[in-house]
Amino acid sequence: MTEYSASGGPGRIAFASKVPGSILQVDVAANQTYLIHRHGFLCATEGVRLSTGFQRSLGAGIFGGNGFIMQKLEGPCSAWVELGGEAVVYDLKPGETLRVHPGHVGMLEGSVNFDVAFMRGFANAVFGGDGLFVASLTGPGRVWLQTLTVPNLAHALLPYIGGGGAVENVESGVAGGIAGAVLRGIFK
Length: 188
Known about the structure:
By secondary structure, this protein is α+β, with helices and mostly antiparallel strands. The chain contains four helices and twelve strands; from the N terminus they run E-E-E-E-E-E-E-E-E-E-H-E-E-H-H-H.
């Protein structure tokens, strides 16, 4: 981790997000844990402990071939976290479950049980365009979802930077990519 300090007096430093979105300040107590999406950690004050908190291998080619990874943030510290798009906050009660596309999971308290499961239903998995997996978040605890993922941003920009034909539109998700590859093979 890079460390910044002001010499000779007070100083100021600024950080910017990689994609349009929200930067949230999180005050982490000594006994608190947060899980953050793999590129969400921006910076923190002294006392931060950052490590891999959740890792699930989901097969070659899914999530960029790297599996699903979340960063574990512990304190005591103040930290700043980047979420893509708007942050949508849910307070889950004990036993309450929220199922969401894994790419939209921005941050969650360590008390929330996190799991990734296979999407049920052949039609959902192949033609849904959102991939083969769903995240299951079970309370108690707070969950921050991000409304804009990097793949969705790239897909939205595609018509403005070249491409944007019918095949590219079919290839919006992992399952869509499979269907697009099949269609591309049929129509060549």
